[in-house]
Amino acid sequence: MFKKLVVLSFLMIGMLAQAQTYKFAVTDLEGMEELQREFGAFKKVLEDKTGDTFEFFAVPNRTAAVEAMKSKKIDFVLTGPAEYVVFKKMANVKQVAGFGRPDYFATIIVMADSGISSIKELKGKKVAFGSIGSTSKHLAPMQVIADYGLDPIKDIKAIHTNYKIQWKALKRGDISAIALTNDKFLKFRAAETELEPATFRAIGRSMDLPNDVLLAGGHISDSVVHKLKNVFMNNQKELAKAMLAGEDNQKFKGMKFLANVKDSDYNYVRSMYKTIGYPEFSNFVGE
Question: What is the pTM of this model?
Answer without folding.
Answer: 0.89
